[in-house]
Design goal:
- This protein has one domain: Rossmann fold.
- By secondary structure, it is an alpha/beta fold.
- The chain has a 7-stranded parallel sheet, sandwiched between helices.
- It has 5 helices and 7 strands, in the order βαβαββαβαββα.
């Protein structure tokens, strides 16, 4: 039995409408590819990606920083409560086959660094500049093309 790919989407817990739409479209593309989404389970980019996945009929996993599964955004199917605060970023990245960073702040940067340290492919849409190992793309469609290159 072939296991489904797990694609991590990382980004800030709050974002503007344009970034929200990009993340939502990314989620739709993930679901259409048959992969699962894993994210931090909260708002902003995480919520938008999960919404896109759910609206396209996919499955979402949220690795929550706190102690209450009700903290998950409404589009998370499987909330995993950790009580680990920012340390939960390791679980998001470790569980991902590939990571997509959309915009983001220092939490996103920490996840990018962890992913790269673990040898994971990181694809970035409007994310941290100056991190040479991020594969920079301009759109969710371009991100999916890169994912196909790296995961088959």
């Amino acid at each position: 039995m072939t296991k489904k790919k797990i694609i991590g989407v990382i980004g800030a817990g709050s974002c503007d409408d344009r970034i929200y739409r990009i993340a939502e479209e990314m989620g739709s593309r993930i679901a259409e590819s048959g992969a699962l989404l894993i994210c931090g389970g909260l708002g902003g980019v995480m919520e938008a990606a999960a919404k896109g996945v759910k609206e396209a009929g996919g499955l979402t996993i949220g690795i929550l920083p706190g102690f209450n599964k009700d903290d998950a955004n409404p589009y998370i199917d499987i909330p995993i409560v950790t009580g680990l605060s920012h340390a939960r970023n390791v679980l998001v990245v470790r569980s991902s086959d590939i990571v997509i960073a959309i915009a983001g702040g220092y939490g996103t940067l920490s996840e990018i660094a962890l992913a790269l340290k673990m040898g994971k492919t990181v694809i970035g849409i409007e994310t941290w500049k100056g991190v040479d190992d991020i594969i920079k793309v301009k759109s969710p469609n371009e991100a999916m093309e890169k994912i196909k290159e790296f995961t088959g």
